[in-house]
């Protein structure tokens, strides 16, 4: 039953997707590269024993693999390392994490190594005059998305308002749930993923997370208001607890799409 439901889901996504034949989910573990793969450490691609910052380069390699479906893991790591070396000559160390223009440069380096001649464009931050919209993410093009993750802000008790049960107040203590505060346990960061399909009817996307590339991850898109600055944002709502699960840390995170990079050939 699970295989049947997945096949139905994948078919519905393929109706809105063009130019890329998606492998069955059961094939992903042998095709896709994990940004934390042990071989990346053994070969010194990731120096020392520190955390991996290779979500961008890994998503680039997984994009290439979806097109070719013939690269061994060793070949993928060779290309990742060689493109990283080219980036280093251009002043960018991929192990320090990449921003969008640096990832486009990395993609161009990868094209140089593989004899391709792609052109890339982006929408969102760092791309002047190109605001990212829901429609952009629901397009029929594969894209590398930059996501920001934040821990959910906890409410603050406004000074001089409300009393808790110990003070004789009600259970809620008159708290204003709309005032967020930050603390030392705040979690914030950025993460690249590879969007591979979209369904405009359900406002959902299918993507490959380089932290768990052995399965298709799924999320619904919504416009939500940022509780910190009251500005609208393009939010991703993971479909299940398994989607983007490497980052939950035992609690829920807010996921926001900041930009999208695609080919414009």
Number of strands: 9
Helical percent range?
25-40%
Rg result:
21 Å
Low-confidence stretches: 1-8, 157-182
Major sheet summary line: 6 strands, antiparallel, barrel
Total helical elements: 7
SSE series: HHHHHHEHEEEEEEEE
Strand order of the largest sheet: 2-5-6-7-8-9
Task: Please state the overall shape, judged from the principal axes of the Cα atoms.
Answer: globular
Calculate the terminal CA-CA distance, rounded to whole Å: 39 Å
By secondary-structure content and strand pairing, the structural class works out as alpha+beta
Summarize the structure in short.
By secondary structure, the protein is an alpha+beta fold. The chain contains seven helices and nine strands, in the order ααααααβαββββββββ.
Describe this entry's structure for a reader:
This protein is α+β, with helices and mostly antiparallel strands and 265 residues long. The protein is built from seven helices and nine strands. It has a six-stranded antiparallel beta barrel. A two-stranded antiparallel sheet has the order 3-4. A hairpin with a 6-residue loop joins strand 7 and strand 8. Helix 4 crosses helix 5 (73-89) and helix 4 runs parallel beside helix 6 (100-114).
Task: Provide keyphrases for this structure.
265 residues; alpha+beta; six-stranded antiparallel β-barrel; 23% strand
């Amino acid at each position: 039953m699970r295989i049947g439901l997945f096949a139905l889901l994948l078919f519905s996504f393929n109706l809105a997707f063009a130019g890329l034949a998606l492998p069955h989910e059961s094939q992903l573990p042998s095709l896709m590269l994990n940004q934390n793969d042990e071989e990346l450490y053994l070969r010194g691609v990731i120096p020392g024993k520190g955390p991996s910052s290779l979500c961008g380069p890994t998503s680039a390699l997984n994009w290439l693999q979806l097109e070719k479906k013939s690269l061994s893991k060793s070949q993928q790591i060779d290309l990742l390392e060689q493109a990283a070396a080219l980036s280093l000559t251009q002043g960018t160390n991929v192990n320090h994490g990449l921003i969008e223009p640096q990832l486009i440069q990395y993609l161009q380096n990868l094209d140089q190594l593989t004899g391709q001649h792609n052109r890339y464009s982006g929408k969102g931050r760092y791309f002047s005059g190109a605001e990212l919209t829901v429609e952009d993410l629901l397009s029929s093009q594969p894209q590398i998305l930059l996501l920001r993750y934040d821990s959910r802000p906890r409410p603050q008790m406004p000074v001089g308002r409300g009393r808790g049960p110990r003070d004789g107040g009600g259970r809620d203590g008159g708290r204003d749930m709309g005032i967020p505060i930050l603390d030392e346990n705040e979690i914030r960061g950025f993460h690249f993923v590879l969007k591979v399909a979209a369904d405009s009817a359900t406002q959902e996307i299918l993507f490959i997370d380089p932290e768990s590339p052995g399965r298709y991850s799924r999320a619904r898109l919504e416009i939500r208001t940022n509780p910190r600055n009251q500005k609208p944002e393009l939010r991703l709502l993971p479909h299940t607890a398994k989607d983007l699960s490497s980052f939950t840390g035992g609690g829920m995170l807010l996921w926001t799409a900041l930009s999208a990079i695609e080919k414009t050939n």
